[in-house]
Amino acid sequence: MKLTKRFEEILSDAFAESIVIDERGDGHHVEIICIDEAFQELSRIEKSRYAFKALSGFIKQVHAVTVKCFTPDEWEKKKDSFSSTKYIHIKR
Q: Domain residue spans in the chain?
């Protein structure tokens, strides 16, 4: 199973919405955006740790990964700056 597909499955179980961007199409340069109310009141570092914890068993298989986490309100304000055809948008 392709690693990005596995990320999609894990993220759909962990967060209300998530987006996986496979930069090169090889599954080794990945950008992940997680959107969930659980990020309310958390610092940026705490949000990232929360997301990385969900992916902990698989993260070592990726060469480069970027994780960005937002509450639904934060995402509404910033989502237009992330528009790309590379996105794989996952809603729970």
A: 3-91
**How many residues make up the chain in this entry?**
92
Contact assessment for residue 65 and residue 30, using Cβ atoms and an 8 Å cutoff:
yes
State both tokens at 10.
């894990």
Residue 22 has which token pair? 């496979």
Percent of the chain scoring above 70 in pLDDT = 85
Residues 6+ apart with CB under 8 A from 79: none
Asked if the model's pLDDT at residue 39 lies above 90, the reply is: yes
Integer-rounded Cα Rg, in Å, for the chain is: 12
> How many angstroms separate the CA atoms of 18 and 16, rounded?
7
CA distance 60 to 45: 19
Q: Residue 88 has what pLDDT? A: 54
CATH number belonging to domain 3-91: 3.30.300.90
